[in-house]
Amino acid sequence: MISQTTEYALRAVVWLAAHPDRPLTAQQIAEATRVPAGYLAKVLQGLSRAGLLHSQRGLGGGFTLARPPSNVSLWEVVQAVDPIRRITQCPLGLELHANRLCALHQELDRAIAQVEKDFSRCSIASLIEERGELVPLCAVAPKGKGRTKTVAKRAKR
Fold first, then answer.
1. Long-range contacts of range 31-36, CB-CB < 8 Å, 24 or more positions apart?
2. Which of 16, 33, 62, 132 has the fewest CB atoms within 10 Å, measured from its CB?
3. Are 73 and 13 in contact (CB under 8 A)?
4. Residue 9's closest CA among 85, 84, 74, 86?
5. E strands, the chain, where?
6. What does DSSP assign to residue 123?
7. What is the pTM of this model?
8. Phi, psi values for residue 134, rounded to 5°
9. CA-based nearest residue to 6, from 37, 38, 54, 46
10. What does the pLDDT look like over 21-38, one tens digit per residue?
């Protein structure tokens, strides 16, 4: 349902939210999230243009979230990089369907509306809060407040 680009954007935003201490470079984010660095750089630029990230050039520069993770929804990230469009008129342009959608397109639009609702309610912060043993994008079980040895080592780079 979501594109690879959207998956990469979500990984990057979640990683940045989990590491708010300092700006992270595209290369650091790419390594941590297992995303090709060149492609991720373009995704990060798109997120910056959408106002979701701040980018800082130069020594000590990198990317940070533009807002607190509790104020960024999954839906905003999705819409920033590869928007999911609601179906408001017949995609085939059929004259007979001009005033309303057929059953197929009504059902597809209903599903899209549900995704929009669910993704809008889910903040990035809610994804990084401890929910058990699995921390997003981490290969090691958490120690302490949702951070792992692996995460702590990478964050120091």
1. 31/154, 32/137, 32/154, 33/8, 33/137, 35/8, 35/11
2. 132
3. no
4. 74
5. 53-56, 62-65
6. B
7. 0.80
8. -100, 120
9. 46
10. 899 999 999 999 999 999
